[in-house]
Amino acid sequence: MLYDVKLRIAYSYETPSDQSRLVLRLLPNDIPATQKVLARLLTLDPMPAERRERVDFFGNTLTSVVWHEPVEAITIDLAARFDRRPDPKFLDFSPTVEALGAEIDMQRGLSPIAPQHFTAPSRRAGPQPDMTAFAQAHVTPGMTTLQAVETVGRALYSEMRFDATATDVATPAAEAFAKRHGVCQDFTHIMISCLRGLGIPAGYVSGFLRTDPPPGEPRLEGADAMHAWVRAWVGVELGWVEYDPTNAQFAGADYVTVAHGRDYDDVAPVRGALRGSGGQDSSQAVDVIPVVA
């Protein structure tokens, strides 16, 4: 499936900012057997004085930009075309949750996709006692790891409410879980914490979700901005699978990946610093449009 993606992130400042420096994780990459990037272009207005690109530990492309002169506004535009491959059908050959630990121990490498990187707590994702207890209450003995991932995701979808105004990027997962509402970032961090509490390696995926659903299908939550969902390692046979707790479904052909890591800190689309005074406003707009051959 071919998709054209357009993203605009805009910032405006009450007073011109001086020495602005940003690190962007917005340029998507090829993922074997999943997606191929046919074209990608990241532009900034005004043009930065310095621009450099590199690849981080998890394989995400980082774009570092610096402005030496004061700026009143910054606009970031991404245009990309993807070929999103259909997901292969697979049988559930994942081990039980109780047996997963032995398969994790068998993995001796420490490559970026090694499950060992995704089991311990990270700054934004558990395990935490209340979320672990929640997951344990829904996962029954003898359940396969793949079944456990879906069960926890569906339980969160049933108990939590999507609310675009309830939280912001700095809201802790524990707070969103206690209130049982939030955005896709909150759903994702909570599910990661739940799965890690069960001993299932889990990480964070940022990307885009199709904004124009097929005829007769509902529009999915989170389609108006960059989206987030979960990667979980379910054993040697199946490896990594992806689940979207915000919409209670495995991530499939409607999902386009930009970056992945342990939690939001590893994939933040925009991070940086500036020198100035006063407040700022920001906006984000996304279009993911299927390309009709």
What is the helix content? 10-25%
Low-confidence stretches: none
Element string (H = helix, E = strand): EEEEEHHHEHEHEEEEEHEE
- The value of Rg in angstroms is 19 Å
Q: Quote the average pLDDT.
A: 91
Quick one: how many beta strands?
14
Work out the strand percent: 35-45%
**Class from secondary-structure proportions:** alpha+beta
Shape: globular
| Biggest sheet statistics | 7 strands, antiparallel
Distance between the termini: 10 Å
- DSSP helix count? 6
Describe the 3D structure.
The chain is an alpha+beta fold and 293 residues long. The protein contains 6 helices and 14 strands. Strands 1, 2, 3, 4, 5, 13 and 14 form a 7-stranded antiparallel sheet that branches. Strands 11-10-9-8-12 form a 5-stranded antiparallel sheet. The chain has a two-stranded parallel ribbon with strand order 6-7. Strand 3 and strand 4 form a beta hairpin. Helix 2 crosses helix 5. The longest helix is centred in the middle third of the chain and has 15 residues. It starts with a strand and ends with a strand. The model has no long low-confidence stretch (mean pLDDT 91).
